[in-house]
Amino acid sequence: MPERTHEFGLYGARGYKGSELVFRVLDDLAGGIATPVTARRGLLARLHYLTRTPHARQAAREAGLTVTERTLKAWLDEKRRPTPANLDRVEAAYWTVRRQNVARHLLKRLNSRGGTRVELHPLNQSQVDRPRQRIVEYRTINVRRWDRIVQCWSTGDTQGLDDEWTTVIEDLGSNWGQYEYVTNVGFAA
Fold this sequence. Notes:
Structural class: alpha+beta
Order of helices and strands: EHHHHHEEHHE
Radius of gyration: 20 Å
Shape: elongated
Largest sheet: 4 strands, antiparallel
Number of helices: 7
Strand content: 5-15%
Strand order of the largest sheet: 1-4-2-3
Helix content: 40-55%
């Protein structure tokens, strides 16, 4: 049984940790504001999302946006512009609140019809010397229970998501370690 990869890329292989790609795909499925936070329109859209109700304001505070009401009002009225550090806080708070708001709906979509089929594209070995290359094929797996994965994603728990994703790919059999790092993970809901 393979162990987890400790020195990925030692011989030139390229790819990403599968759990990181799952996190990105879930973010894409969650949707969101496409305009960057640095643009006026993107900033205002995020601020309206984070301040439209008392519940949203509380969630934004819990997510790390701890500026005063007066400052928020000045930003919304465009009398002041947030500092780059505050722009980062607004972006982080927006995604934290967005993930929490979308998680239940996304979980329902992923678990419907017996689960969701996931495509795993193998790592890139083009820079690995021929004798060290191994045959790693494109694989698919049907993930039936997304509960813990979506919960870790919605709270931003990357280590928990990595542990849950490792549990999922162990279903591939004795060569699951070959799919810990991949070039792409694809699924839709």
